[in-house]
Amino acid sequence: MHSVLSGEAMKGLVRSFRYAFNGMAYALATQRNMRVHFLAAFVVIFLCTVISINVLQITTVLFSIALVITLEMVNTAIEHVVDMVTSEFHPLAKVAKDVAAAAVLIAAANAVAVAYLVFYDKLNPIHWRTLRTLLQPPFIGVVLIGVLCLMVAVSGYAVHLRLRGKDVHTSG
Ligand SMILES: Nc1ncnc2c1ncn2[C@@H]1O[C@H](COP(=O)(O)OP(=O)(O)OP(=O)(O)O)[C@@H](O)[C@H]1O
């Protein structure tokens, strides 16, 4: 227990969060599809804060968004590893990239289906959420606004990476 809370362990933890944050911003700065997913996710999470849907529906939406974004990151990582191993045409390189892209496509199709099923009867007419439901337990407002703030922070750092332009291999 003591070693878990030691200064060195804390520094290591902070360092690994920083690397993960860099990875998110890098994927956003370099991958057009990632920017599309991020923008769509931002709009949908914002909708969850203003439209009256229940906690289970919000959980499903957040899970679907996380699945798309994490798979897009894994896809980016696989593309980079393949490109590092070979710049030649190789059938296995094609399989690796195509299968990774297919994983993202399935997650994105699932997210569209989830968004449709959750929102289809809430938009016409719009079922607005009351401020009270955002602020009472389980504090939906805090969770959603926290996620939106994280997304803004990652986007800000991605813009910084693009402006700096160093070590950024854009694609898509
Ligand atoms: N080294 C390779 N050998 C064989 N096929 C490849 C190779 N590199 C890419 N491909 C094929 O070209 C497709 C596009 O690859 P590329 O690396 O350009 O991805 P991308 O268009 O940047 O992907 P994304 O849309 O995710 O950014 C792959 O899905 C694969 O079918």
What is the compact description of this entry?
With 172 residues, the protein is mainly alpha-helical. It has 6 helices and no strands. The longest helix has 31 residues, at 55-85.
What features would you describe in this structure?
- The structure is a single chain.
- Helix content is 77%, strand content 0%.
- It is mainly alpha-helical.
- It has a single domain, classed as Helix Hairpins.
- Helix 1 packs across helix 6.
- It is globular and about 55 Å long.
- It starts with 6 loop residues before the first helix and ends in an 8-residue tail after the last helix.
- The structure holds adenosine-5'-triphosphate.
- Adenosine-5'-triphosphate binds next to helix 3 and helix 4.
- Its main location: membrane.
- Keywords: ATP-binding, Cell membrane, Kinase, Lipid biosynthesis, Lipid metabolism, Magnesium, Membrane, Metal-binding, Nucleotide-binding, Phospholipid biosynthesis, Phospholipid metabolism, Transferase, Transmembrane, Transmembrane helix.
- This is Diacylglycerol kinase.
- Its cofactor is Mg(2+).
Which cofactors or ions or other ligands sit in this model?
Answer: adenosine-5'-triphosphate
CATH architecture: Orthogonal Bundle
Helix-strand category:
mainly alpha
- Helical run tally: 6
**What is the typical, i.e. mean, pLDDT?**
94
Name its key features.
172 residues, mainly alpha, Helix Hairpins, 6 helices, 0% strand, binds adenosine-5'-triphosphate, nucleotide-binding, ATP binding, kinase, DAGK_sf
